[in-house]
Amino acid sequence: MKKILFIYLLTLFTTLASANNKVECLQWKVSNITQLSKPAFSEFNSVDNKPFKLASLLSGAQSVKSLNTNQWSPLTINEDSVITGITNETQLIWLEGFVTSNQYAKVDFSFFANGLFEIYLDGEKVKTQSKTSEKEINTELTLYTGKHQILVKLLSTEEDLKIAASLTVKDDTDIALNWTTNSTREITIHDVIEGKYIQSARISPSGKYILISEGEVLEESGKRERSMQVFDISKNRTLYSYPGNSLTAAKWLPKSDKISYTVKKDKLADLYVLDVTTGEELLLAKGIDDLGSINWSPNEDYVIFSRSKKADKVGHHKRIFGNDDRLPYFRTRSFLYKLDLSNGVIQPLTTGFLSTSLHDIKPDGSKILFSTSSMDYTVVPFSKQTLFEMNLETLELDTIWKDKTYGGSCDYSPDGKKLLVSGSPETFGDLGVDVQNDHLPNSYDRQLYIFDLQTKEAEAITKTFDPSVGSAFWKTDNEIYLTASDKDLVKLFKYNIKSQSFTPYSLPVEVVSRIDFAKNGPMAVYNGTSISTPEKLFTINLKKGESKPIIFPKEETFNHIAFGETERWDFENKNGTNITGTVYYPKDYDASKKYPVIVYYYGGTSPTSRSFGGRYPKNIWAANGYMVYVLQPSGATGFGQSFSALHVNGWGTDAIDDIIDGTKKFLAAHPTADANNVGCIGASYGGFTTMMLQTRTNIFKTAISHAGISDISSYWGEGYWGYSYSAGATKNSYPWNRRDIYVDNSPLFNADKFNNSILLLHGTADTNVPVGESLQYYAALKILDKEVEMVLIEGEDHHILDYDKRIQWHNTIISWFDKMLKDQPAQWNELYPDKNL
């Protein structure tokens, strides 16, 4: 291969669109030259009597995905447009450049070459010239806000190669184009939902190895692939790799560095164990029917697993037995079984009409802890938990508690004498409640308790601990480790039982997603994100508090992505309470300009964490030129029980007031925020909030509600979980005794007070918040001649998960805000053109 001679200019030199909205593409990055040859017998025609064409060399030469442009050299097109170094025909080179648009745009890309070429936009082929021509080829490109890669694959047909290229805006003169060879760009929706991610990471009992399960969402198709690996921590390398689903239901055994997994054959499963230290595999059990997820005994001599039993099919008429019987899967029951590995005998442990759920196996392996749950529609929260301890030798039962209205998940202490219970503040009556002023505690604010199996007495260990508990692990007699939502962060804490104190760990991430602890030794493995950092995997030495990076699945992609600044911005609400908030700025933020604003807040009751990505990716909104203000209004968990209690029976009150007050104070404190172009967005309970806000204030020029609740009473009765969620959110309050909540604070009954505009989004198959919640609000606003649009996403449930639908859903959100807050309707009109109906 020959090196190309170049006229060197600054690589970061950019070309802006001229007054007539045309930009000359003079600077490129270029690959080395590859000399191709015609194949043997190319002088003969094919069996179809067709001659060999050079275009076949071009199309088959190299794929976009195999390119590594990091080492490419800069090239400036001179007056003769000649690429120096081409000395023969059938020489292949690649060109790379980037175009940035300040908004959604349709542009013409004009390209000339006296050879053959293919043009790619963001990796997708958009044009091919398979015959030489003396004319420029024009290709229409659709550009979203941000930076786009243009690649050109060229094949010479002469002894020199000439090129010329330019971009021209087709319509709007306000569109600004920028041409550059700098690959650094803003984040897009594809960066969030495509590529590799960590499905799970489990550490071996010794703390020496990690079993890592990775997923990957493929570009363009959205198909998902899966792989697993065993990672050696001390050697910092992968020992074994397993593509696809070759290790199904893989997990570590409890005391040895061995992995169990199943192999399905028809409806039967074989159970294997892999010793990672020797690489040996051992078949433990063969031909087991309906073997699902297994739980190993501490001594590795048996496993507990569950089997599901579906109820008999009903005809076209179904009698409903209780509210939950509306759910199609409610009559399915799950029962526990024990597989004795010494003789292969399977012993059924539970049966009957109630499902049984395994909580834990006693450390000595002699007993198991499991529960049943029965419905009781006369007492909040409408279900009662009974907890049992079973002697596995005799199958005798000891009832730990019976018909507890607020149950919990339970694990044995290391000595098996106590339980670590995770539940609501009212799991043990008022023992864990810490609220004032006659407020009711928020049942979603998770608490921890230590329960003595002998005395049957409980101790509330997180009652005055403000963070809301996530996961917990009782590691030693004196140490409990837990993750907890601390305001908008998710942290790792150690609880010292003797001193009754919590100690936070300093971690390199702001939000811990998952954590797994080694049974023997001080090691754990966790993955997490930060506000502008995608998911990473780490190990941590719990004694030293030191974290070590293991995997960053999207490192290569995010090496080329730049983010705007973020900062804390809090305010004091009308009650004198500090309301936490975060501001996302555009990447090239200019303090002399005005920016439209998007305001976002929680849905449900969990705070909006500082995690990366998600269904509502604030980084992308900021990359599209918005200032984004995220606040944590009253009622969110993670700020203490008194704060989260404001969510209970608080529909349309404190949280709404905080958002209005906070937005006004935010605008006053930020001169660059355009107070005339402010939008808000929320989903589910946040969608209710959005609908209600537009009846309470006119500060939001527009709003977007996804799966919002417009009539609290219809949601309460129709949604699969409406009445049960309301058991926490409107505890002891019903349509017949709290008209002030169900009617007065429902957006539907306030539609005549609606201000400005709104876009309603909803999946047509939503079982949580039925689509009728948006339909009836839309109908009301149309009759009232308000500015409202509605987009229904066919076949999607509460979350938009389908790959293609999610991308269009995201583009719908951005295009609506662009139309309403930037006066840029082009993308919205392209997605949803007007029709005369």
Provide the structure class.
Answer: mainly beta
> Which class of the domain at 580-823 in CATH terms?
Alpha Beta
- What are the segments in which pLDDT stays under 50 over at least 5 consecutive residues? 1-15
Overall body shape: globular
- Mean model confidence by pLDDT: 94
- CATH architecture term of the domain at 580-823: 3-Layer(aba) Sandwich
CATH fold-level name of the domain at 580-823:
Rossmann fold
Give the number of DSSP strands. 51
Task: Describe this protein's structure.
By secondary structure, the protein is mainly β. Among the domains are: 171 residues, Jelly Rolls (Sandwich), CATH 2.60.120.260; 244 residues, Alpha/Beta hydrolase fold, catalytic domain (Rossmann fold, 3-Layer(aba) Sandwich). Strands 1, 3, 4, 5, 6, 8, 9, 11 and 13 form a nine-stranded antiparallel sheet that branches. Helix 6 packs across helix 7 and helix 8 packs across helix 9. The radius of gyration is 31 Å and the shape is globular.
